[in-house]
C-alpha cells in the first residue's frame, strides 16, 4: 500500500510503499519522550517529494538511527539507519502517516532502555 506522510507544518512530505500491520513501541529515552510508534521498511521504499526546508538530524547512544525532524515544527516523521545485515532502512513514525488506522496496528513493545 502507498502511504503519504509529513511533518506537522507540511514543509516535509514523503510517500512510502509498504504493508504496515504492526509497529514498535520502544521505551528508550527518545522514543518514550517523542511518543514514537515505529515501522521499519527498506530505505528504498521511502520517497521524499517535498522538502521546503532541509531536515535536521539527531543521533544518540549507539547512533544506529539518524532521527530526522523538521526544523520548523519539530515533528520527527522518520529516521534513517542500517539493519543488522547492512541494508538501509527507514524507521517510520506511523503517527505521521495519513490514513493509517493506529488502533488496527499490532503493537510490539521493545525494551530499548536495556539497550542504551
UniProtKB/TrEMBL annotation:
Transmembrane segments: none annotated. This is CENP-V/GFA domain-containing protein. It comes from the Bacteria. Keywords: Metal-binding, Zinc. The keyword Transferase does not apply. Belongs to the Gfa family. Residues 3-111 form the CENP-V/GFA domain. InterPro entries: CENP-V-like, CENP-V/GFA, Mss4-like_sf. PANTHER family: CENP-V_GFA DOMAIN-CONTAINING PROTEIN (PTHR28620:SF1), CENTROMERE PROTEIN V (PTHR28620).
